Amino acid sequence: DIQMTQSPSSLSASVGDRVTITCRASQSIGRYLNWYQQKPGKAPKLLIYAASSFQSGVPSRFSGSGSGTDFTLTISSLQPEDFATYYCQQTYTSPWTFGQGTKMEIK
Amino acid sequence: EVQLVQSGAEVKKPGESLRISCQGSGYSFTTYWISWVRQMPGKGLEWMGRIDPSDSYTDYSPSFQGHVTFSADKSDSTAYLHWGSLKASDTAMYFCARRAIYGSGDTLDIWGQGTMVTVSS
């Protein structure tokens, strides 16, 4: 299985901060990398697909980049509604695998 | 509106069987695979596998192969996740999600609200 490793596992930040989450794959996955946001008690929500493409309705402060084994999710200016847990996921090969998650908390 | 609606929370004893459901609406159910995702309490997301509702082809993650079974009823636009013998370690929230191809890659673009399964003696 392809292992997905996110860093950091948790992050404390303030409204207005620029934050970056990284996701590393144990082998090359091209650009088959998605990002999801999950709020407590809710289902995950697709944010970014194919490493850098926005899902419809996602604010432009979110951006994704990377290819191969190293990927990033950046939020340019944190808003109160962005405090959540973020997961990367590879769909390059089955079994699809998720990163362990990055929990973003208010400083 | 495109949505997946899951069945309600379940409380079961170890060794019991269980089937939970995921009904799609607002789209052609047989056009999109359904994935199942587990989230144990306080933990991350784990992809369990997928089913193609058009022909019931399944693809299980090795971590779940042999312990769960996926099925689908095209006539009712419903996918199912079944356990033959539950364990306490099956206690988790289970999500179904629609697989869609965006660009050239797979995504899980629509999610059910989740079904909480609690297994306790």
Describe this structure in words.
The complex is a heterodimer of chains A (107) and B (121). Chain A is mostly beta strands and 107 residues long. Chain A contains no helices and eleven strands. Chain A is globular and about 35 Å long. With 121 residues, chain B is mainly β. Classes of the chains: A mainly beta (107), B mainly beta (121). Chain A binds chain B through residues 1, 31-32, 34, 36, 38, 43-46, 49-50, 53, 55, 87, 89, 91, 94-101, and chain B through 35, 37, 44-47, 49, 59, 61-63, 95, 97, 102-109, 111-114.
Give the overall average pLDDT of chain B. 97
Oligomeric form: heterodimer
Structural class of chain A: mainly beta
The helical percent of chain A reads under 10%
- How much helical structure, as a percent, in the residues of chain B? under 10%
Radius of gyration of CA atoms of chain B, rounded to a whole number: 14 Å
**What form of chain B results from the Cα inertia axes?**
globular
For the report, how would you describe the main beta sheet of chain A?
7 strands, mixed
**What separation lies between the terminal Cα atoms of chain A?**
36 Å
What's this model, at a glance?
Chain A is mostly beta strands.
Write the layout of secondary structure elements.
The complex is a heterodimer of chains A (107) and B (121).
Chain A: E1 4-7, E2 10-13, E3 19-25, E4 33-38, E5 45-49, E6 53-54, E7 62-67, E8 70-75, E9 85-90, E10 97-98, E11 102-106
Parallel strand pairs in A: 2-11
Antiparallel strand pairs in A: 1-3, 3-8, 4-5, 4-9, 5-6, 7-8, 9-10, 9-11
Chain B: E1 3-6, E2 10-12, E3 18-25, E4 34-39, E5 45-52, E6 57-60, E7 68-73, E8 78-83, E9 92-102, E10 105-111, E11 115-119
Parallel strand pairs in B: 2-11
Antiparallel strand pairs in B: 1-3, 3-8, 4-5, 4-9, 5-6, 7-8, 9-10, 9-11
